[in-house]
Design brief:
286 residues, alpha+beta, 3 domains, five-stranded mixed sheet, five-stranded antiparallel sheet, 9 helices, 31% helix, elongated
Length: 286
């Protein structure tokens, strides 16, 4: 058994060395379920080269931006745990200096799951970083296209990290398809006010025509102009001071004729509109 103990000691030392390769996680990694020839603490073995196995246990299991956001994106997290996982994901990003830590697949999950969970602000923080790894660093290095890798050592004309472009349209511009309609026959305009962004101009060429969403902050007012193509309709979410709308009604928002106020929802006043061009002016959310 002395030989077995020596072999086991060597294997455990190797495992410990591998775990120590990550300073952040090494202290939490524990070796468990040690086995020799599939047996726990055997009295003896009759094998010249025994098979050894073990498990590594750590509270950090699955604690990666891609793993957590992928589970949220695909609905794998139980409903009563989604907020906890989302909060842990945001905390992880904050501990990483506000940077993303994902590759070509994980970046999409990260952007979409954070936005769906109401944390588009965390995406904005990542999107505006200018040091490695970030889109801003590419721009600082003179990039005019999307690159394949964060370090720029592969193709420099690649769409793999391009989901941030869709995010600009859907979140900053607010142009989103309605999942219950086909081909933008009905769509949603719901811009989000993030960071120090003061204006946005976005348009999408749909099968029915050009959809436009243009907004600007002017003092304490928010001004939104939208264009709805012929034969389509839209639901427009206008950012506003919900307390004033709640106490004074939708008249606090100046709008064109042929718009129909539907409800107040969070920090938005919601309208239904048919084809045409419209302008909304509202008191800024507080």
């Amino acid at each position: 058994m002395a030989g077995f103990a020596a072999i086991l000691l060597i294997q455990m030392t190797t495992v410990s060395a591998l775990a120590a390769g990550s300073a952040q996680l090494a202290s939490d990694v524990q070796v468990a379920d040690l086995r020799c020839e599939y047996m726990v603490d055997p009295l003896g073995i009759d094998v010249a080269q025994p098979r050894l196995s073990w498990k590594l246990e750590s509270p950090w299991r699955g604690q990666r931006q891609t793993a957590m956001s992928c589970a949220l994106y695909h609905g794998l997290v139980p409903g009563d745990q989604r907020q906890k996982v989302l909060d842990n994901l945001v905390t992880m990003i904050e501990k990483n200096g506000g940077h993303l830590d994902a590759g070509i697949l994980g970046t999409k999950y990260l952007i979409d799951s954070l936005t769906a969970g109401g944390r588009a602000d965390a995406v904005y923080t990542m999107a505006t970083k200018t040091d490695y790894p970030s889109w801003g660093r590419w721009i600082a290095e003179g990039a005019t296209t999307l690159w394949e890798q964060w370090d720029g050592n592969a193709s420099r004309n690649h769409i793999m990290f391009g989901d941030i472009s869709a995010w600009f349209y859907q979140v900053l511009g607010g142009i989103m398809p309605d999942s219950g309609a086909v081909g933008f026959k009905h769509f949603i305009i719901k811009p989000q006010l993030l960071g120090d962004v003061k204006w946005v101009r976005a348009q999408h060429e749909s099968m029915c025509g050009t959809i436009k969403s243009t907004w600007e902050i002017q003092g304490d007012k928010f001004n939104l102009k939208v264009a709805v193509p012929v034969s389509t309709t839209a639901t427009v979410y206008v950012p506003c001071d919900r307390h004033r709308v709640g106490s004074q009604g939708p008249n606090t928002i100046r709008t064109d004729d042929h718009t129909r106020f539907v409800r107040a929802e969070g920090s938005y006043a919601v309208y239904e509109v048919e084809s045409g061009s419209y302008e909304f002016t509202s008191p800024l959310p507080r």
